[in-house]
Design goal:
Blueprint (H helix, E strand, L loop, with lengths): L3 E5 L6 E5 L3 E2 L5 E2 L10 E2 L9 E5 L6 E5 L2 E3 L5 E3 L48 H15 L5 E2 L3 H4 L3 E3 L2 E6 L7 H14 L2 E6 L5 H10 L3 E4 L5 E3 L2 H9 L6
Parallel strand pairs: 12-13, 13-14
Antiparallel strand pairs: 1-2, 3-4, 5-9, 6-7, 8-9, 10-11, 11-12, 14-15
Helix pairs in contact: 3-4
């Protein structure tokens, strides 16, 4: 777990105890942005997509991926971004050059056996915008075998981003961990429509959201900017193995 650091808001001077979020590498190891101790935080006045990400290298497998910059909202209303250490092996600094979109991720230790149905290699969609994240999730669900996958009509009504035959899915393209409420919302939609659900997040999930998803058997996936979803829990592994016929 990342250590807490004391940070002073550059806008109002209020001190905060900040702990960087932890993200799951494809190999299963936790990766956290190494916040630079003593570094000067900055107030983010104009957010851009490229500046919201930092490239981190997994200390266990060496895989390099882009993850959300360490940030927090101060009570004064300022969005504060923290500098990241360039310590070798942990962070490779900001990088706007994405890895090749067809780069195959390493196989996690103890990975489940391949799915019973034969599938061609998945072709990821490089993510540069929120719409790209929806497209990547849609393509992945089609690859899993779901038919009729399409953008949902009115997301504001129930939070659903994608629909398919007996399928509902949500995609969180923000740079903050997906909260518990969103996972429970997806589960309620699944129950109401008697459908399989899947959740895709760019920044991972809050701890209580992960625990609740395991209790409710909600498949969780995390995506990096290469657009390749990785399973986060057993329900997601089951969905990969069995596709539309998966059942917790």
């Amino acid at each position: 777990m990342a250590e807490s650091v004391l940070v002073r808001c550059p806008a109002c001077g209020q001190e905060h105890s900040y702990t960087a979020p932890t993200f799951p590498c494809a190999c299963g190891s936790p990766v956290a942005p190494p916040v630079l101790v003593g570094g000067l935080p900055v107030e983010v006045r104009h957010r851009s997509w490229d500046d919201s990400w930092v490239r981190l290298r997994c200390p266990d497998c060496g895989r390099s991926d882009q993850w959300p910059q360490p940030e927090f909202d101060c009570a004064c209303g300022a969005l504060v971004r923290l500098p990241v250490s360039s310590e070798p092996g942990l962070a490779a600094g900001n990088a706007h050059t994405l890895p090749p979109p067809h780069e195959a991720p390493p196989v996690p230790a103890g990975q489940a056996p391949p799915p019973p149905t034969s599938r061609p290699p998945f072709r990821p969609v490089t993510i540069r915008t929120a719409r790209d994240a929806l497209t990547a999730a849609s393509q992945y669900l089609k690859w899993l075998g779901f038919a009729g996958v399409r953008l949902a009509g009115d997301r504001s009504a129930n939070g659903i981003d994608l629909r398919g035959d007996h399928l509902v899915a949500q995609v969180d393209p923000t740079t903050l961990p997906t909260p518990l409420r969103d996972v429970e919302c997806l589960w309620l939609n699944c129950a109401n429509e008697d459908a399989t659900g899947a959740f895709f997040s760019l920044a991972g999930y809050a701890h209580d959201a992960r625990l609740r998803a395991d209790q409710l058997c909600v498949p969780l996936f995390v995506m990096d900017l290469t657009g390749t979803p990785q399973p986060v829990n057993d329900a997601a592994d089951e969905l990969i193995r069995r596709g539309p016929s998966a059942n917790c």
